[in-house]
Each structure stands twice: as structure tokens, then as C-alpha cells.
């Protein structure tokens, strides 16, 4: 993106090429009835006094964390703040008041030059059609595969003392700003115990009957069919592939903070329970809470699954420490749920994000026939993928190829809620004039991914039970 075309917020470092997005950002983050968040050194991490760390200052000095000025309760690195605020704008998109009841959604048609779906540089373009049509799984694959005897490596802070198991205690660079806390605040624990607010709604079924449905404030069902429809309507999309439509988008609660790894585990569990896949009997009522997941991970360590995680984290029960792919893998393996973890790093001139694209494309290609050249969107029954990069994790629910041969991951990001506009499209035949605007929250392209040198994936490999309904 040409920086000369960027418009900058007068109150914070946020910028975007789309004037309407900038206006929405100001409305959301700097309302007239509240004190605007001005740019100060303290706010953006030049002087970080929030760390509870008792360790020396060279422990994790490479990462500076700041509180989101939007008020969501998330703590992000200063380098990621602009992207974080941009996605807050995307999650706030709503229907125009005049078009709420119309079956045809006439969104603002202002073009977007954003960092999530912009073209690659010429030398970075990949032959995705060749990869998809050839069915090859992982040429040049030199990343490490994990099983019970191997594990992913984490980006490390400066060296520290090792435990009796040979593992080092990690710090803020790996575990977040609360890496050294003994327990989370009592108000937060109470909020997590209570969970999201539930409500009951009555709606008409396809056969004309009334049905009552319970909804949870931070959970959204039936979102993948909406994304599929928007990909179909987006003229720049050549082909799109999506996972099982029963996967639920689960996002953080307001003021919750950095529990993204847990929320991604919940999204994978939503697939397991909805499809009656192997292991669904462990979750008979609903997805496990964050506190339940902490217990399951600690139990997995007790059983010997990636047990060095306890030394590395100092234990996670009752804390806000970040978890990662090793913890997710340990949980599923301890329950007998088959999974396959991999680490993707740059090698021999191939960037890590290119390897990521090829791996995800190959994953979807393995169950799709591309003989019908007129077919644009492929809806599969594949599980979603747990996706980790430094400091954050998401759930991959799809992959798309654009007309210019560039690509995007399609993700459920637990840091952001479903926008009102997307909510209104669920279960309708509405058409959107500007699907790019609504898909922005779900796309992660090269300009986002190229900032990271290492990615981790965790795929569920168990098949649904034949008795599923």
C-alpha cells in the first residue's frame, strides 16, 4: 500500500486508505462524548509500567504491550496496534438504516486498499492453480512434524535457568504481559465462570414452524455459509474453499483480555461436538469454558503430553498467561482426539507465509475435485485449523485465490466479534453490493502475514462418527 495515500487518525497512530473506515474508527474509538485517546509515549509502550514481572528488565524488553484504546480489554504490542484498531472498525460495520429491512444490502461502495487482501509483489506470487490441480502435499516441506516425542519450538526471551526437565521458564515475549502473575483478578475469574450472556429467540423454520433458539453473546453459528455467499459475490475471487459450516465463531468477552488460544480451542471443539467427531463425548453439554480448558491442559501435562509446558509457563491454572499450539495439542492428544501439528518457517528463499499458503491450499485440495471449472466456492466438511503466529492465534476456516493469483486465509479471529451486518445476513438470501467490506474482518493476506517468520498449525485428523446426525 502506498503510504502517501494513507489517512491518519488525529488522536492515535491508526491509519487507513479508506476515508469511511477512518471516520468509523474515530466514531468508535474517540467518541465526542468521551475524552479522546491522544498519542502519548506512555500509552503506546515507550514507558511500560504494567508488567508484574519481578525479573530483570532484560527479561522481555523486545516486546512493548499497550492497552487497546478502543476499550476492549485486549493488550497488544505497539507494533500491532494499528492493525488491531482497523479490525475493530471492521467488526462494527452495520447495515445502512434505510436498508435494514431490505433483502438487498446496498453497502458503501468505496474501494478498499487494505492490508488483508492486497496483491503480492510480483516476485511473491505463487502458482496456486498448479498447487491445487496437482494435488501435491508439501513440496519443499522442511518444517518439523510433531508427535508425542517432538514439540514445537517457541520464540525465546534471553536465556534463563532451566528446570529439572531441561525446559526454560518463559517470559512476556512468549506468555504475554501477565507472564509472571500468580492468579488473575477475581472479577475476571468470576466473569469467565459466568460466561457470555444467553438469550432465547423465537424464529420461523423452513417448514413454517416456530422454534426457540438459545444464543450466547460471544458465539455465532451459521456464519461460514454467509462467508461462502460473500466470496461467491466478490468478483475478485477466483476460487474459495471453506471448512465444515457447523464451526462456530467464538470471540472474547468485553474486557476479557488475551485468551485467544482458549477461544480457538473452543472453536475446534464446536466442530467436534456439532459433527459428532471422535472425542465429542468429552463435551456433552457445550464447549468447555476457559477455566475448564486450563484444567484439561494441566491434566494433559500430568499425563506426560508436552509436559515441559508446565516448566515453561510456571503453570497456567487461574492465570492470564498466553497458551499456544503445544498446549492445544496436549489437550486433544490427552483426550484421544487425533491431531497433527506442524511448524512452518522460511527456508532457501521461500518466505514462511508462502509455505503457509501452500500448506493450507493443499489441505483443502485434498478433498476437492476441480474438474468443474465453473465452480467458484467449495464448501467442504473439513475441520478448521488452529493457527498460531507470534503473539496471537486464530482459527483458519477457509482459503481463497484471487483473480491476480494472490491468496488470503479466511479466519475466525477470537479477538473480534461478528459485525451487525454479518449477523443480519445469517439465514437470509440478501445480496451485498460490496462483499469486500464485510470480508475484510475474515481475510489475512500477505501484508499481514509477511511480518511473521514462523507459523504453527494444528489440524484435527479424526473422522466424524458414522452415527452422527
Number of helices: 14
Give the radius of gyration.
Answer: 22 Å
pLDDT averaged over residues: 77
What's the domain count?
Answer: 2
Structural class: alpha+beta
> How many DSSP-defined strands?
18
Low-confidence stretches: 35-61, 95-125, 133-151, 155-159, 465-469
Please state the second-level CATH architecture of the largest domain.
Alpha-Beta Complex
First and last CA, distance? 47 Å
Give the CATH class of the largest domain. Answer: Alpha Beta
How much of the polypeptide forms β-strand, as a percent range?
Answer: 15-25%
Percent helix, as a range, is 25-40%
Broad shape? globular
CATH topology of the largest domain: Cathepsin B, Chain A
Largest sheet: 8 strands, mixed
Region (Disordered): 98-167
GO molecular function, one term: ubiquitin-like protein peptidase activity
Protein name: UFSP1/2/DUB catalytic domain-containing protein
Pfam family, one: Peptidase_C78
Structure characterization notes:
The protein is of the alpha+beta class and 469 residues long. It has two domains: 3-105, no CATH class; 122-460, Alpha-Beta Complex (Cathepsin B, Chain A). Helices cover 27% and strands 17% of the residues. The protein has 14 helices and 18 strands. Strands 9, 11, 12, 13, 14, 15, 17 and 18 form an eight-stranded mixed sheet that branches. Strand 13 (385-389) and strand 14 form a beta hairpin. Helix 3 (128-134) packs parallel to helix 11 (352-365). The termini are far apart.
